[in-house]
Structure formats: C-alpha cells, structure tokens
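[Automated response] Your request has been received and processed.

Submitted sequence:
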Amino acid sequence: MDIINATGRRKAAIARVYLKEGNGTITINKRKLEDYFPSPILQFIVKQPLSTLEVVEKYDINVNLVGGGYKGQAEALRLAIARALVKINADDKSALRKEGFITRDPRAVERKKPGRPKARKRFQFSKR
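Generated structure:
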C-alpha cells in the first residue's frame, strides 16, 4: 500500500496526515502522540475515527501540525485522519459521517471591526 495523504483544518490549525500500513504509531511533528497531546481527552479526539472503524493498530500515521491551539489542532487532525481513511476505503465514509468526523467545522474567529474594541463589543455609550 502506498502512503495516503490528507489535510484537515479547524479554526487556524492545519493538519497534514501521511498514513501507511503499520502497527499504530502516531507521530506529530516528529514527536509521539502522548508527548504532543499529554491530555487523554485530546488523544481520544485524535483516535476517534480509528476506533470507530476498529483500525487503531493497523496504520502508522505521520503528521505535520501548524497553527491554532491544542484543541483546534486535535480536531483538525481528527478530520485529516477521517479523510485519509475514506481515501483507503470509500465504504467507511457513511460510518464516519454518522459520527460527524467528515464534516469540516467552519466556525472561526470573527474579525475585529473598526471603531470597536472587539468584533461585536461596543464602547460604553454616554448621553452627556
């Protein structure tokens, strides 16, 4: 099997995934998953598509992660892994879509508007 690549994005985070057959090693920016995401919740988020299809020990995953915070990075990585798994076997798409792993979350930070302190916040109104 060749190396399968896919991209996932969430907020400002971008994950580029390279997936090949192996024994279940996940390497993120040349570090182990446990070192990069010490939180077990974030590790769980990353492994969700793999555990849904029960292929956790089947593929080695090499990841380039840039931008965003740790939560956004974990969710970008989840999307990228799901997309790579669909490239391998298109029949898995319905199972992953049912869990919500195929849909790209479009929510991002709203830009700051001129004449305001933040995107929607306004300065205090003074009548006199």
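Summary generated for your ticket: The chain has one domain: 4-99. The domain at 4-99 is CATH 3.30.230.10 (Ribosomal Protein S5; domain 2).
If you did not submit this request, please reply to this message.
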